[in-house]
Amino acid sequence: MRRYQKQIKEYRKLIQKNYIREASLLKVIAQCEPKIADQEDRRISYFEFVYEQSRYIEKKWWALQGAVLLFLWYLLKNNGMNPLMQRMTGGLAAVFAILIIPEIWKNRRYSSVAVEKASYYSLRQICAARILLLAAVDMAMVTVFFAAAMQALQVMAYWLTVNFLLPLLMSCCICFRLLCSRRQGMEYTAAAMCMVWSAVWLTVMISSEVYDRIAGPVWMGLIVLFLGYLIFCIKKSLFSSEMVWEA
Predict the structure, then answer these.
(1) pTM > 0.70
(2) What span, in angstroms and rounded, lies between the C-alpha atoms of 150 and 146?
(3) Which DSSP helix (H) or strand (E) runs through 108?
(4) N or C: which end of the chain has fewer CB within 10 A?
């Protein structure tokens, strides 16, 4: 690490000595100051800020999440009367959650923290805006899927909630909890943990004895528990983002 720091210092001295003209630099600063002052005087609303952040999110991940829901629709349409198949399709919820990982971990992967910390808005505000966008779009897709499945395929809302929403919430908990880690490369660990959770979930779903013994209130209680823990993990990731990512 020290060797790279030494090379960076030498490269910076070379650039400053041979390629940067002080007069030109001062001229650029003088031209930029009025524009920066104008931008600081203009306050945009929170919705405008969120919209600006949406331009930096790659839409292909939403398209892939939509493809997962379409595949789930196909399975339900062709095997919707099979209770075992209905339970097993809940394993796709982990895949749906894994597709959130590339956007959530993008800042750490490309080391863009230094750039975003120099922006007008804080790093916490930027992360919150992107999480809000991802959550809003995912919630809209899942809501439309639930409504269409209940209307067209006559699938019970209870089944969708237990067999899809519950494993989805748990997968999201895993992703956001590992986001608070200081270690690098945790996105791969998060994806692996989600797949392990999916395997455990499918094992439980295949066993009719275990599935049938769990009463409806217990399922609902687990959903509330996972939802509360997910909110805690998101809050923790936002408050510790600057400390973790800076380290």
Answers:
(1) no
(2) 6
(3) helix 106-109
(4) N
**And the tokens for 136?**
């809003």
- Residues 29, 227: Cα–Cα separation, whole Å: 49
Q: How far apart are CA 94 and CA 100, in angstroms?
A: 10
**Do 137 and 62 form a contact (C-beta atoms < 8 A)?**
yes
Is residue 234 over pLDDT 70? yes
Contact 195, 94 (CB under 8 A): yes
Residues 6+ positions from 244 with CB-CB distance below 8 Å = 180, 181, 182
Cα 106 from Cα 108, distance rounded (Å): 5
When pLDDT is cut at 50, 70 and 90, the band that residue 101 belongs to is confident
3-state DSSP of 72-87: HHHHHHHHCCCHHHHH
Q: Is the dihedral of CA 178, 184, 189, 190 positive or negative?
A: positive
CA distance 117 to 244: 13
Are residues 134 and 103 in contact, defined by beta-carbon separation less than 8 angstroms?
A: yes
For residue 34 the two structure tokens come to: 């009025």
What digits encode the pLDDT tens for the residues 106-153? 766 665 655 555 566 666 777 777 888 888 888 899 889 888 888 887
Q: How many CB atoms sit inside 10 A of residue 92's CB? A: 19
Distances in Å between the alpha carbon of 113 and those of 103, 107, 117, 129?
A: 14, 6, 6, 15
Please tell me the total number of residues recorded for the chain in this structure: 247
Residue 207 C-alpha from the chain's centroid: 31
- Beta-carbon contacts of 2 under 8 Å, excluding residues fewer than 6 positions away, are none
